[in-house]
Hints:
Blueprint: H1 2-14, H2 25-35, H3 38-59, H4 63-91, H5 93-112, H6 117-145, H7 151-155, H8 157-176, H9 181-190, H10 193-202, H11 210-215, H12 219-229, H13 233-247, H14 269-275, H15 279-297, H16 300-305, H17 307-314, H18 319-347, H19 349-375, H20 382-401, H21 403-413, H22 420-439, H23 442-472, H24 494-511, E1 515-516, E2 524-525
Antiparallel strand pairs: 1-2
Amino acid sequence: MADRKGEAQQTIADFDPPKKRKRNVFAISCVILASTTSILLGYDFGVMSGGSKFIQEDLKLSDVQIEILNGILAFYSLMGCAFAGRTSDWIGRRYTIVLAGVIFFAGALLMGFAFNYAFLMFGRFVAGIGVGYALVIAPVYTAELSPASSRGFLSSFPEVFINVGILLGYVSNYAFSKLPIRLGWRFMLGVGAIPSAMLAVGVLAMPESPRWLVMQGRLGEAKGVLDKTSDTPEEARLRLADIKQAAGIPENCTDDVVRVTKRSHGEGVWKDLLLHPTPSVRHILIAAAGIHFFQQTTGTNVVVLYTPRIFEKAGIASSEHQLLATVAVGFVKTIFILVATFLLDRIGRRVLLLSSVGGMIVTLGCLSVGLTFIDHSHEKLTWVMILCIVLVLAFVAFFSIGLGPVTWVYSSEIFPLKLRAQGASIAVAVNTGTCGTLSMTFISLYKAITIGGAFFLFTGVAIVAWVFFYMMLPETQGRTLEEIETLFGKYYKWKSSNAILLKNSKNDKNMEVVYVGSSINDQKQLGTKEQP
């Protein structure tokens, strides 16, 4: 009877609702520290938005020189992107983050002390390399450290901090605009060194990526990191087994240190990635490069970088009012990116992405009409000006709740382990190259086809982007990093692979039978009646 009573109690307990899983505080803290590198790029974009007007006035520069100054950092960052993957495979993700901070620190100081256009360009060259390193390594480190249950939430942090950096840059513009012109823009650029110094200290509390440690054969250290960053001990064990399998290490190997092959330092990766990729790797590369390409060609960073000029075209004449309106753009971007972090693991990447781009299409189209209306009007139309400001705010809100964070989350999680760092480098190179091209040509573009025409062009690109995302990007929510690769390889027919994974998942759940009792003969399946 006592045994039967114990069985009944155990059966009832099994029907209790599952406890809500808590966020892993240690993993969140590490990701926050790593993601501060993303502030570097955001701050530069934000501060150059308003600072370029003061630089142009102080150094007597042409519009073409300002275009080059604004966009050249993105091209310089390509050098950092090119070296970041290999560097992080050699010295680890953690110390690559430190290197990014040190390089940008030097660049920020050089820009702050620049006395002419050439010296300023040299400072942007140095800072650009640091930005390139930061753009690649922060998403990779975050994806590799995060547990599957909150990977979307944590992997969106780099984009969150880019937006925080943009907001800080906008605030810096407004704060230092009161100083004399020759000092104001130098302070705006120079204070960008502060986040870099903070990063160098904070990185001491961060662990190394467990996936990188496994690739180096340091299984004992990797197990320790996984125990701290996983939601449960069972998840830590499963994550370690998955990583060992991906790295070609036998699952039954329990040594703290094992011998690894030469490829663990990144040799042969480019061959597997570009020269002889498998169908799944080719699909992954197209998806990652595509999402980064369309993130930029829909005009988002052009809006961020040239917000004061757009508001000037919309009818705001005062520089102070332009900068205040720009700060409002920064606040909206930051608020909506924070909202997105809580939605990524709840409603999925695809839903957010497609909804976001759909909203961007509508707002871009309406903004195009509004700016064209103002261009052809011979009097100031206050209601159209207000409408354009609202549409700019709505546009950045739609971007920040979907396309902004999903781009970095998605591209950092879909590459196989051995190709992840270099794959992320290629994706980021596409992003920064496209960003640099648009930044260096936008003023010339809107002078050639009008400001309204430029935004009509962005509207058309956004429509193409929506179709690409719908056809080519499978949902990755809830999948382990090692499982995601199986979703790719069939391009627009990816749904068949997803159906197979769902079927296998259901079969695995059906095979999990709960038994009670201590002996084989006494076992019975939970929820069935006892047979006489």
